[in-house]
Design brief:
Blueprint (H helix, E strand, L loop, with lengths): L3 E3 L7 E3 L15 H13 L3 E4 L8 H9 L3 E5 L2 E5 L9 E2 L11 H8 L5 E5 L9 H7 L3 E5 L2 E5 L8 E3 L3 H13 L5 E3 L2 H4 L5 H7 L10
Parallel strand pairs: 6-7, 10-11
Antiparallel strand pairs: 1-2, 3-5, 4-5, 7-9, 8-9
């Protein structure tokens, strides 16, 4: 665009102002967290989903962990297909800076693992207080114990509908996942958190068979 910037990759960036910037065309990279969310929705519901416009190299830790749960992952250029087993296997997760397992996928995976066979251990190494959503999952029948940065998740056979609150963006998406898989109807309040990070979320969920509606006040 014609900007004068020095210091990329260092701790100091210097910008020298210019009179005018040029127009450019730029394609924003695919959202790796949204892609991971839909793959996990497919896994949690024992389904088969195709996610398009994905950069597979950006979500390698996610697809590897999904394979550990027993899912079959098929990758072709910018398309990922997931075929889930009848019952997911428990796995352990530790969040790390990129290219490690992303902290924004922690709640998504935890929600999915509430229905896995066995006990999963999740360790949150990036942010504090990222387990608020687990109290809402517990109200739906999940078995989750929190101790500091560690969450212990014992898989259950079923989750059940309840009136719950989204606590943050990714935690809210995790609750939507749980609601789709749960028996009965779930009402989720404070969905403005969720809508901040997922474009046309309701429409995309309906396209894969979810019975969902929302009302923003």
């Amino acid at each position: 665009m014609g900007a004068k910037i020095q210091g990329a990759g260092s701790s100091k960036i210097q910008i020298q102002g210019v009179k005018k910037l040029k127009d450019v065309s730029y394609n924003i990279m695919p959202d790796r967290i949204e892609a991971g969310t839909f793959l996990c929705i497919g896994a949690m519901n024992n389904g088969k989903i195709e996610v398009k416009n994905v950069e597979p190299n950006h979500i390698t830790p996610i697809t590897h962990k999904l394979e550990e749960t027993g899912c079959k992952i098929q990758i072709k250029k910018d398309i990922i297909n997931i075929i889930a087993p009848k019952k997911l296997k428990a796995v352990d997760i530790k969040t790390m800076p990129y290219p490690g397992f992303p902290t924004d996928m922690q709640s998504i995976f935890a929600s999915m693992l509430t229905l896995a066979k066995g006990t999963s251990i999740v360790v949150e190494n990036i942010f504090e207080n990222r387990y608020k959503y687990t109290q809402e999952l517990i109200r739906m029948g999940a078995k989750v114990t929190i101790e500091g940065k560690i969450a212990v998740i014992k898989g259950v056979r079923k989750l059940y509908g309840a009136s719950i609150n989204a606590t943050d963006l990714r935690g809210g998406a995790a609750l939507v996942m749980a609601a789709i898989a749960a028996k009965g109807t779930t009402k989720i309040d404070k969905i403005e958190y969720i809508l901040r990070g997922y474009e046309n979320f309701e429409t995309k969920l309906k396209n894969i068979g979810a019975d969902i509606m929302y009302n923003v006040h």
